[in-house]
Design goal:
The protein is mainly beta and 121 residues long. Helix content is 0%, strand content 43%.
Length: 121
């Protein structure tokens, strides 16, 4: 896996995210962490630790992030999210949030993703 110093921010959280580590997150209108579930949602980064409701979420927003795959994709593919906030290959019309630096053989695999605002693919 590619190595570098990650960029992280802390965001208030009202949701139970104890099983959400290495998945994508967004920020809601209230300024708190939300789980995105649509390939058009804006992703701000990857949750890098489990957090209970009422805690503070640590979110990696820059650099190379370990990210949970939601399916098969190849290194170099643009990445978006599935309904469980996992990384999947972006297709035409999706909003990408990164570039895969490693291939994923299937759902649940942890792979390196370069976090970068890809925009609409």
């Amino acid at each position: 896996m590619a190595q570098e110093v990650p960029v992280r921010i802390s965001i208030p959280n009202d949701q139970n995210l104890t099983l959400h580590r290495y998945r994508a997150v967004s920020v809601g209108a209230d300024g708190k962490v939300v789980k995105p579930d649509d390939p058009l949602d804006f992703v701000i980064g990857i949750l890098d630790m489990d957090v209970r409701a009422g805690g503070t979420a640590s979110v990696q927003v820059g650099g190379v992030a370990p990210t949970m795959a939601g399916g098969v994709f190849s290194a170099g593919d643009p990445i978006t999210i599935d309904a469980q906030s996992r990384a999947v290959r972006a297709v035409s019309g999706n909003r990408g949030f990164g570039i895969a630096l490693e291939s994923a053989a299937g759902a649940g695999e942890i792979v390196a993703v370069l976090l970068t605002p890809v925009g609409i693919v």
